[in-house]
Input
Amino acid sequence: MVDFGGWSMPVQYTGIIDEHHAVRGNLGVFDISHMGQFFAEGADSAAWLNRLLTNNVDRLAVGECQYTFLLNENGGVIDDLIVYRVGETRYLMVVNASKIDEDFAWMEGQARDGVSFENHSAHYAGFAVQGPKSAQLFDSFFSGKYSRPARNEILAVEVDGLTYFIARTGYTGEDGFEVFCPAERAVRSWNDILRKGAEFAIKPCGLGARDTLRLEMCYPLNGSDLACDTTPLEAGLGIFVDLHKPEFIGRETLAEQKKHGVKRRLVPFKMTGPCPPPRSHYAVFKGDQKIAETTSGSLSPTLKAGIGMAYIPTEFARINEQIDIEIRGKRFPAVIEKKPLHRVGSTAN
Output
């Protein structure tokens, strides 16, 4: 157990590699109760969110969601989050645990009439069920009472008179569902998921497996790969930025980067020989020149090689470019790869 965003969180249950393979091959469940839940509601809520977030909320129908960014005035990432449209004028935002207070203060500071904005993070627990058998678990759990939400959709269901939100997004690359339930139902819901999932060989999973799974997919981690001095365009995530919509905070910087190009890019790399696993803040070299530091790094259980990400100057940020990573005072060869590092075999139904 370790401190994570003010929560006591498990690094592993049965082991990182065991849990990683469970998600890739069968089914795993992560406790994500540490993540925050904000609600915005009102006639002007969509317009308000569109001024705060990079993606275009107007594209969402009720029951749909999108990945997006909350930026500072300089275009730097305060947080990456998912916004769900759960009613005609009501939106749920799921934010990173370590950013709950900062996000809420920033957004509340931009408050406007016609919008009710509330932090309900203490009211909800959350669980992420991930793996190729997650759809089978959903059907088994609800016995056909509810149709599965499609990818990037959210469903509100009633359980014992209480509202549960079930979304189909994920942070592992596998098919999966996020379940947000009233906090007082946390233990019961966790145990219900494990009991129902037993026939699909479900395993509880910790932070270690979460990190290796997301890194194989090149999904960024806020605070490591994303920060207040990095922009979504530098991170290669411009698809989640709508520069055609009306003004939003940070837009000017992103428009300039779009026009003139970025000077660095977040790229994945794979070690090409035996070496200790790379970690964050390791020096990256091109020849004798230090050009960057790693932002993330780990041993990939699937690829059986060291992998990581780093912001590399644009002139070197090319697929198949040879670089070196300094690990414990020695340099080891690596190559810049195409995203994602792992191609998931299963697809959502």
